[in-house]
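Trying the structure run again after the queue cleared.
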Amino acid sequence: MGMNKNSILGWATFIMIVMGLILIGLGLFKYRDISGIGFAAVGIGFFAIAWVFSSLKGRV
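Done. Tokens:
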């Protein structure tokens, strides 16, 4: 049972959302100084890329 393009994009979206949540959590709870802002910004960037992957499902 192979994976088609839509399922690969779905898994990529899921992984990006999980990684974004982890990075935002690190920024909020572990690194509360200046580097926490960077972690949170990168986590939001992961959400943006996951949104693009999600919108590409069905069109590729």
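The helical segments are 5-30, 34-56. Worth checking whether this holds up in the mutant runs.
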